[in-house]
Design brief:
With 222 residues, the protein is mainly alpha-helical. The chain has 2 domains: 71 residues, Winged helix-like DNA-binding domain superfamily/Winged helix DNA-binding domain (Arc Repressor Mutant, subunit A, Orthogonal Bundle); 144 residues, Up-down Bundle (Four Helix Bundle (Hemerythrin (Met), subunit A)), CATH 1.20.120.530. It contains 11 helices and 2 strands. It holds the Pfam family GntR. This is GntR family transcriptional regulator. One of its GO terms (molecular function) is DNA binding. It comes from Desulfosarcina alkanivorans.
Length: 222
């Protein structure tokens, strides 16, 4: 643990942030048990900040306490994924429409086009880790510019919770071309000053990705 982090933030917050990152990146798996004593040893701290961090994780929905088992990383069902992505689709499509209505600079659209080109190159190279990283930036482009912090923060939080599953879904080769084409259509509507079309395309794009992800989860876990 970085001593500088400890100076700036309470121990419970540092531990919470690191555990969230490990869960989202898949270093801690769904269903894995989190033992206070083991975590205290790992972070070289007492059990008190560990217990506080675990309570925060439970409150945010990352873990659950199972009787006779203890704190366990929550498994997300396909139904829950579909439910969350429907909310994301509503929020991000609204954000995209706001951006289209407000307008944007030429440099901004050029940066978005560059991002799209980099995604295409990553897909061709089958570098799906980089592709996913760039995909997050593409969607964040609209959230950062929608001038509505509530929409942006909620959508970002929900996407963070879905990070690991989205990574798996994006790595399916059959989906990549569809997603790139959807992004291209969204950009065309954006440049063409068609806010309602941007909103419709963004919503359809996210729901299509959600459907593919849910189908993948059902096949994988059935």
């Amino acid at each position: 643990m970085d001593p500088k982090q400890i100076e700036k933030k309470p121990l419970r917050d540092v531990i919470y942030s690191e555990l969230v990152d490990n869960i989202l990146q898949g270093r801690i798996n769904s269903g894995e048990k989190l033992v206070e004593a083991d975590l205290a040893k790992r972070f070289s701290v007492s059990r008190t900040p560990i217990r506080e961090a675990l309570l925060h994780l439970e409150k945010e929905g990352y873990i659950e306490h199972i009787k006779n088992v203890g704190a366990t990383v929550r498994k997300i069902s396909p139904q829950k994924v579909e439910e969350i992505f429907r909310v994301i689709a509503i929020l991000e499509s609204e954000a995209a429409e706001m951006v289209a209505e407000a307008g944007f600079s030429e440099s901004e659209i050029l940066n978005l086009q560059k991002l799209h080109d980099e995604m295409s190159n990553a897909a061709k190279a089958k570098d799906f880790i980089e592709y996913n990283h760039l995909n997050i930036q593409f969607h964040q482009f609209f959230l950062d510019r929608c001038n509505n912090a509530t929409i942006a923060n909620i959508a970002k939080d929900l996407r963070n919770k879905m990070y690991r599953m989205v990574s798996e879904g994006l790595s399916l080769p059959m989906n990549v071309d569809k997603y790139l084409n959807s992004h291209h259509q969204i950009m065309e509507a954006l440049v063409g000053n068609k806010p309602k079309t941007v909103q419709r395309l963004m919503k359809a794009h996210i729901l299509e990705a959600s459907k593919a992800l849910v189908e993948m989860m059902i096949r994988k876990y059935s």
